[in-house]
Write a structure and sequence with these properties.
By secondary structure, this protein is α/β, with parallel strands linked by helices. It contains 18 helices and 18 strands.
Length: 406
């Protein structure tokens, strides 16, 4: 009797060294403000104790610096929509010091993590906001770092001064111009405070005031922000009129601000992450709450659909890692906590602090394919989102660093 041929093989998990690790130390969001204030004469400490902050070498100094952060508008989204964003498209060649290259946001590619990286000049392993939701080792509960629930003392959770505070103390005119709803949030307090906060409702008001604040000092550092590109992407997806309408609007806002720059000024237009639309089918949306294999040995599921922190019950971490690799390893990079840290997911070597170590999952899963791990019972709102982000794929990681100078 002859053996029957077969094409079946055991699934091969994705090798961790194939994950495109963020470009910490000279090409990430965390390096932007340290670069700008260094050019204004304000040195800031680095992620590793005793080391200076990394800088983006392609940028050149300016006396007045403005950062316009557009939530959710990645590099690929601009490239894919030249008709909706003609002005931003015209600036693509200026990105990263006219190299025409993007920067990376850091892992996970999510708002709370990225804004903390922007404001502190530190990678996630140092500033301590390494995900959308993470376990608080002191209480064992999941902490939502965007909404700051449950309440946690902000300056215990993130103890470092912001770049804005350091700049303000050094005599630089420092201001944030954003929606009034963000003025007193804990995330703003630990990531973006320093100088003066100016709340304005409309995008046009923000652009006009940002330009005025930029002109208000001989040396200025101004930050302004717009959120609704991300909001419409989550709700409707990028293949929607609502999302495209927001892109058209923010394109006009960017041009409005650029046309009002005072002398000796540089405007940098960037984002906190990109986004990807996820189909509503069983292969693309794996429901943790309905999957007994993935739930086995798991005490808490943190993070978000494309960047999960998995916290095991005591003694089960190795088994959970094995199962998650077997079930998801062809679609996700699945690492133990120590493997993810060693691979540089949360910062360069030596950057992950002891107080942050336990906030990172026993197992960390980052999506490679167009797939998410939802939790339909525990996370009903997030599970219904169309647009998602969080992982290390180029569409999520790469963001513009567009530059306009007066």
């Amino acid at each position: 009797m002859t053996a029957q041929p077969t094409d079946w093989q055991d699934p091969v998990p994705l090798a961790l060294n194939t994950a495109p690790v963020p470009e910490y130390g000279g090409g990430s969001l965390a390096d932007l403000l340290p670069t700008l204030v260094a050019g204004q004469g304000v040195p800031v400490p680095g992620a590793v104790p005793g080391a200076p902050a990394a800088v983006i070498p392609e940028l050149t100094p300016a006396d007045r610096n403005c950062v316009f952060l557009i939530d959710g508008l990645g590099w690929q989204q601009i490239k894919d929509h030249p008709d909706e964003a003609p002005y931003l498209t015209s600036l693509l060649g200026t990105s990263r010091g006219s190299t025409g290259r993007p920067i990376t946001v850091g892992f996970p590619a999510t708002t709370a993590t990225s804004l903390a990286s922007v404001g502190t000049g530190l990678p996630p392993g140092a500033h301590g906001l390494p995900g959308y939701t993470v376990r608080d080792p002191a209480t064992g509960a999941l902490m939502n770092q965007l909404r700051w629930r449950p309440w946690t003392e902000p300056h215990i959770w993130q103890p470092y001064p912001t770049i804005f505070q350091l700049a303000d103390a050094a005599g630089i005119h420092t201001a944030q111009v954003s929606s009034p709803i963000f003025e007193r949030t804990p995330l703003t307090e630990v990531a973006l405070s320093g100088g003066t906060f100016h709340g304005r409702l409309s995008g046009e008001e923000r652009m006009d005031l940002a330009a005025a604040q930029l002109a208000a000092g001989d040396r200025s550092l101004v930050y302004t922000y717009y959120s609704e590109v991300d909001g419409k992407g989550h709700k409707f997806g990028m293949d929607s009129d609502a999302w495209r309408g927001q892109l058209m609007y923010v394109d006009r806002l960017a041009q409005r601000l650029a046309e009002q720059l005072p002398p000796r000024a540089a405007l940098y237009i960037t984002a906190d992450h990109g986004m990807i639309d996820i189909p509503f089918d069983e292969r693309s949306r794996i429901d943790f709450d309905e999957d007994w294999e993935l739930r086995a040995g798991v005490a808490l599921l943190g993070g978000e659909g494309r960047a999960r922190h998995v916290y095991a019950v005591p003694g089960a971490a190795a088994d959970v890692l094995t199962v998650w690799r077997e079930v998801l390893g062809e679609q996700f990079w699945v690492a133990s906590r120590d493997e993810a840290i060693a691979a540089g997911w949360f910062g360069p070597p030596g950057a992950v602090e002891e107080r942050v170590y336990g906030r990172i999952g026993d197992v960390v899963a980052a999506a490679h394919d167009d797939v998410v791990i939802t939790a339909s019972v525990k996370e009903p709102r997030e599970s219904e989102m169309v647009g998602m982000h969080g992982s290390m794929t180029p569409v999520e990681q790469l963001v513009p660093l567009l530059e306009v100078r007066s």
